[in-house]
Amino acid sequence: MSWKIRVTASGFAKASQQAQEFLRRAGCELVFPKKLGPLRADELTGTLSGMDAVLASLDHYSAEVLASPAVAQLKIIARWGVGYDAVDLRAATRRGIVVTYTPGLLDAAVADYTFALLLALARRVHEAHLVMRDTEWKISWGDDVAGKTLGIIGYGRIGKAVARRATGFDMRVLAHGPHPKPEAEKSGVQFVTLNTLLADSDFISLHAALTPENHGLIGETQLRQMKRSAYFINTARGALVDESALVRALGEGRIAGAAIDVYATEPLPPDNPLRSTPNLLLSPHQASFARDTGERVSLAAAQAVVDLMNGRRPQNILNPEVFKSPRLRAELVR
Hints:
By secondary structure, the protein is of the alpha/beta class. Helices cover 34% and strands 14% of the residues. It has helices spanning 10-14, 17-25, 41-47, 63-67, 89-94, 107-122, 125-133, 157-167, 182-186, 194-200, 220-225, 243-251, 291-309, and strands at 4-7, 29-31, 53-56, 76-79, 98-100, 149-153, 172-176, 189-191, 203-206, 231-234, 257-260, 280-282.
């Protein structure tokens, strides 16, 4: 058996030597488009025509896309990464399409990058670099990190990894999430209300999953609760933040600064106000793009495709109920 696999995940395209060899040995044909993801819904349909599988970016797999006759051969959407809010899981299940992801493999890379943003922001590393590139010699005064209070919103795997890094800087760590974790308290992390976290933290790092309930979680009201000396970091999802409110808060000096790796619209449009907002460090959704990590994620996503192709249930399935559906497009070995 041989499957055609469309690659839209730029992470796979850049860090997948072992995974590509693995897939080709399994008899798969890899197809790389001219434009990698994330792709809009209107860009996806033609891209997936005749494909059995997709190694997916944060592409918009809407119900309309999945219902298209051009996608009738698609059996699995294997996400390169952990975010899956752009996939209509119910629609995929109705169509008999398996959806997988790669949890746990990106935690350290994203936590490292989060702390890199925190340090660069506090100590004005990005500003010093630009000054030196312009052949000037001008000192940028920053703020201390050691001994300060870090607030983590969303205490899942990545939030925990960020907390562990903070202990090396003797930081007091506050956390907020829907389910307080007793084991966190034993390691010195204090669970508090969101209002308390916003008011008490010197640094606030966002790691919540995007759900319909927390869309726009950080907006005008929340930003006004923060200290004027506080810094905000987001490596989770752009839609968790009201970007217009953040632009106003930074422009008016109501918080000291922010570092953003994720956006409501990606790629970030050239005329987006964030690009000209003061005291803001921007990066292009690259927190998970570390080479060793990328290879591990690519292999995990590739393994999911090969497992299903060979009639086995993959690991890390987002819609396990699809295997009870008479519309399941892949054949399982009974």
